[in-house]
Amino acid sequence: MRLPNAAVGDAQTSGFGWDVLTDLVDVGSRMAGQEGERRGAEVVRDAFERAGARDARIEEFEVPGWWRGSSSLTVHEPHERVHDGQQDVLSLPGCPSGEATGRVVDVGDGTYEEFEARADELDGAVAMASSDTPEEVDRWIHRMEKYVNAADHGAVAFVFRNHLDGSLPPTGEVGYHERPGPIPAVGVSREVGERLARYAETGCEATVAVDCRNEATTSVNVEAEVGPDTEEAVLLTAHVDAHDVADGANDNGAGSALVAEVGRILARDDVELDTRVRLVTFGAEEIGLWGAYHCAETSDLDDVACVVNLDGACSSRTLRVGTNGFEAMGAVFRAVTSDLDTALSTDDTISPHGDQWAFVQEGVPATMTSTASTQSGRGWGHTHADTLDKLDSRDLRDVAVQVAEAVARFASDGVETPHKSREAMREAIDAGYEQELRMGGRWPYDDAA
């Protein structure tokens, strides 16, 4: 099927999605399990209702919460220097409170090989790794792996330095399977990190101090529906939570706004769907995909035709789709972008990063749908700079048209998206990602699977 021309024209002239995004970033912090996340969820619920979706609702579930306090990095030698403001240093969610002093050992980009090469120096040290991954490595090395490697090698603290310019310390969940993690951890800017790396060449001692709070709390998912009341459903999803240091504009306010805007387009009287579309925004993605897992565990997955997950989808107008090996979904996106004469970047690697993983691991067809960017790594994401001014309303409208067209096709009788078994997914996942998941205690399969 194709969206009616009137629906496309409406989408290209609508300010609805941008207004929702503006309302979300104006909430302020939407940190998982905290008041701002709930306020963001209420913005989305109200947007679903205005969009014409039915049964808009908020659902609670428990999560291991984390509250940021103060943190500092004090260099004692060779030159004393104190970094103690959030513009200089940020503690990493999931780490414990504590203070530790040691030699700074720079492990470069934090690959497994770099950790092993410095293994004799890491016991009792402050380990520092870049947020970058070298081009010769065939997959992205996640911050969690670098943190766990540091702790496993006996480091007393971890420093995560941004590889991008701009005096922007990065934040992000350390991903340890037990909360809190074993050692304090902070993010620092590239500029601070480069200075520390230079000092470490001849000997540098530093103290990392973190004050934070780890305790159970509740997060929320928001859900509504459009289309016919069928048992089977296509899920259109995004996460509404964001790290507390910025607006979370592209990661992932834009994704939540797009779910609402695409829902509005599909709810039009002139759009005919054969299958129900569930609009879902998840909570607590940034601290462990908790909202997605809650949704997957409380849904009959046999009735989930497929999942289109939006995350970081407003950095350009070029869709980037990770198919996780579900070729039927990739084919639909290729057909949509061909028909609309728009660009598409695709990858079929099965990746555990993003809310779609809660479904992919069970064999449910699901994509990670974002937009291509010229920035390296997360770009502005997970820093103070993930703000509304970096985005363009025209990009949001173009992406909304492409995603609405794709979801409408997934919700038509003529498109099939076959499921796979858990065993097939286990066998297909890359050994590197298996290593990452096992290291973080998040491998979802039995060895005998």
Automatic annotation (TrEMBL):
One Pfam family per UniProt: PA
InterPro entries named among the record's database cross-references: CPQ, PA_dom_sf, PA_domain, Peptidase_M28
Name listed for the protein in its UniProt record: Carboxypeptidase Q
Primary location class: endoplasmic reticulum
Top-level taxon in the UniProt lineage: Archaea
Keyword Magnesium found: no
GO BP terms in the entry: proteolysis
GO molecular function: carboxypeptidase activity; metal ion binding; metallopeptidase activity
A single GO cellular-component term on record: extracellular region
Entry keyword annotation includes Protein transport: no
Domain PA: 101-196
Residues that span the membrane, as ranges: none
Location in the cell: Endoplasmic reticulum; Golgi apparatus; Lysosome; Secreted
Keywords: Carboxypeptidase, Endoplasmic reticulum, Glycoprotein, Golgi apparatus, Hydrolase, Lysosome, Metal-binding, Metalloprotease, Protease, Secreted, Signal, Zinc, Zymogen
Assembly and interaction partners: Homodimer. The monomeric form is inactive while the homodimer is active.
Organism of this sequence: Halobaculum lipolyticum
Peptidase M28 domain sequence ranges: 221-406
Gene3D superfamilies registered for this protein in UniProt: 3.50.30.30, Zn peptidases (3.40.630.10)
